[in-house]
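Lab notebook, bench 4. The sequencing result for the construct came back, and we need a structural model before the next group meeting so we can plan mutations. Quick request posted to the team channel:

Model the 3D structure of this chain.
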Amino acid sequence: MSLNRKNIFFIGIGGIGMSALARYFNSEGYFVCGYDRTSSPITDQLNQEGIGVFFEDHLSSIDNKFIQNSDECFIVYTPAIPQSSYLMNYFLKNDYAMYKRAEILGEVTKNTINLSVAGTHGKTTTSSIVASIFQQSNLSFSAFLGGISANLNSNYFKQDKGGSNFSITEADEFDRSFLYLKPTYGIITSTDADHLDIYGSKEYLEDSYVEFSNLVVEDKHTFYAKNKVKNIRGISYSATDQEAMFYAVIHSQDSKGTYFDICDHLGNLFINDLFVSLPGIHNLENAVGAALMCSNAGVDEQAIRIGLKEFKGIKRRFQYVIERNDFLYIDDYAHHPSELKAIISSVRNLYPNRKITAIFQPHLYSRTQDFMTEFAQELSKVDSLILLPIYPARELPIEGVTSDVLLKNISHPNAICVPKSEVIKNLKQKEVDILMTLGAGDIDQLVKQIYEFYG
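Done. Here's the predicted structure in token form:
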């Protein structure tokens, strides 16, 4: 593969991983543009940064540079692009150089000291914490993240201070994409069953994570969350389990975050006087893993302390949109039963005497089908539920798999299913104490409306 061609077209440029790569190439002086199905805050930002984004799946979206000089171009695409895509078929028919997003990410980071974070849950937060810590160091690095870091206001960031070049990547298990990476250090945060439409079974998913961990040459450079990951050789860590090789000792925690130390399995203090500016035990565990990998990679303790303390979180990850004494509004990307369990239990622990109303949008028909019982179990733990129709993303409907069917499995009466357009109308009829929007589809389009309604 050669990256000497200076014109790059992204099919699906608004995706979180695709847009990070587009920003990287734009900063390196390439001519970058691309197509996406709909506009979004990300595509708006790309346009503002000088990256052309088009929304018609047609030849009119292609700049003449790509039509007249195909040998000076290459095309980047994601597996989520449907086979019926006009642009995809045009480039295939005309023999353009075409690469998956994961191949390109592996290529641009292959000559760096790569720190990769994998896991069905927690990888975006953990990789963003790693980037926050590196920001406080005297090291050069590039970060390719799977979310919009509040610290960086972006999913791509570069720091040039000379010397060795590091890269921080979020390693995506979808379509086994993370196997294109060449990690020097690795974290695996969890291997819960997910993407069963790709893997077929949890066992094959876990095997894929073992393959990923084997890409890290030295076991001492691989870190994994104890009790959430199987069959991985390396260093275990935990927020609470003292049988892990490293674990957290909590001094205090509240809605602002957690004060803690990290100790080894013998009880010896490893790093003391830490504070992570995110609530929840799951976020504490992410912070422990990030701190350990950064320390192993040579980052000094003070940079770790400051990076954790200054971390402002990620948009749509336990994000406080409104925080008043009489009303809280939290937005989160949770779209898997394990993620719902983590966010709901964290809010319960922080606010034990308050009532929780959740708005949840299921993501993918296949995931809803695979975890119908588990979704119902976790959603039954809130006090009031507004369920939205399933967000299909790349999928066609599956007969018998709907939000109405999921609703029938919810074990309390305070649950309804309504279209997204009726959410505000429904909220007007409720007395809401704590409100959460949860999901990975287009539920984020409600955030501004809800903020304006309650703000």
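The mean pLDDT is 91.
Will bring this to the meeting.
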